[in-house]
């Protein structure tokens, strides 16, 4: 799907959306989807040049963009990003916690450093950012936090113990907040994709090919039951829906985007 495609609706008029991991893949697709729907978008990530490219695309879609270059594992930087967004665009009305990392190793080869880094990016960053944006949402009586988890939040996978544990924790955090703030007007939901057609997954395919498989065989190993990889645009569309008035009664949920792999 091209970057210029979309409904052209103004479903997110007046929203201020902060998207982490916005330089590429799901984060970029999500930022552009919100921009086309009328939202101002704060773009968080570490790759300044890639963020600038996303910002140009957001502005070409007719929306305001703010580039926030920082590492989400830095709690102070996360809080500062929320402050800067409020000063430049207005208080965050939707937070999309998309940034994440996944290191592949056997459990016995997984180091404590790898474990802590994964937890810092995949769980602690959403925790800190949600704490930072929530007071303004509660004051407004409305808002949405959308956490990009994974099918690994619902089932175990080998060689990614830290990632699987982190995504389970992120889902648990989401459900806890949905319960605690059920009457606040703020919603908390997870999106749980299987392998997505992104640079990260393409690197995984390249690694499989390097071990002697063909590209077709490598891709087939990661394909969902529908026979392919998840399109980032599909994840972006669900994020937009979960931040819309149509989803105001949906909270504490975990939506699979996996071509029917995990039916639960």
From TrEMBL:
Residue ranges annotated for the Ketoreductase domain, each copy included: 15-194
InterPro entries noted in UniProt: KR_dom, NAD(P)-bd_dom_sf, Sc_DH/Rdtase_CS, SDR, SDR_fam
Pfam families given in the database record: adh_short_C2
Family: Belongs to the short-chain dehydrogenases/reductases (SDR) family.
Protein name: SDR family NAD(P)-dependent oxidoreductase
């Amino acid at each position: 799907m091209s970057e210029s495609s979309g409904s052209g609706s103004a479903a997110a008029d007046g929203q201020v959306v902060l998207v982490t991991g916005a330089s590429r893949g799901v984060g970029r697709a999500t930022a552009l989807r919100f921009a086309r729907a009328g939202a101002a978008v704060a773009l968080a990530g570490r790759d300044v040049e890639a963020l600038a490219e996303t910002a140009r695309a957001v502005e070409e879609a007719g929306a305001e963009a703010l580039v926030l270059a920082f590492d989400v594992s830095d709690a102070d930087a996360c809080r500062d990003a929320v402050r800067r967004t409020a000063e430049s665009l207005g208080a965050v009305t939707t937070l999309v916690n998309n940034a994440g990392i996944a290191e592949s190793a056997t459990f016995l080869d997984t180091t404590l450093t790898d474990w802590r880094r994964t937890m810092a990016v995949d769980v602690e960053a959403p925790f800190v950012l949600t704490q930072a944006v929530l007071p303004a949402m509660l004051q407004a009586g409305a808002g949405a936090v959308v956490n990009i988890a994974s099918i690994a939040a619902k089932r175990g996978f080998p060689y990614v113990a830290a990632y699987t544990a982190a995504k389970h924790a992120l889902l648990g955090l989401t459900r806890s907040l949905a319960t605690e703030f059920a009457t606040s007007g703020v919603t908390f939901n997870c999106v749980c994709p299987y392998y997505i057609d992104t640079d990260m997954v393409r690197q995984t395919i390249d690694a499989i090919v390097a071990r002697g498989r063909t590209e077709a065989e490598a891709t087939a190993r990661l394909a969902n039951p529908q026979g392919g990889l998840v399109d980032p645009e599909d994840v972006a569309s669900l994020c937009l829906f979960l931040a819309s008035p149509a989803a105001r009664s949906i909270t504490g949920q975990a939506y699979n985007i996996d071509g029917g792999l995990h039916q639960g």
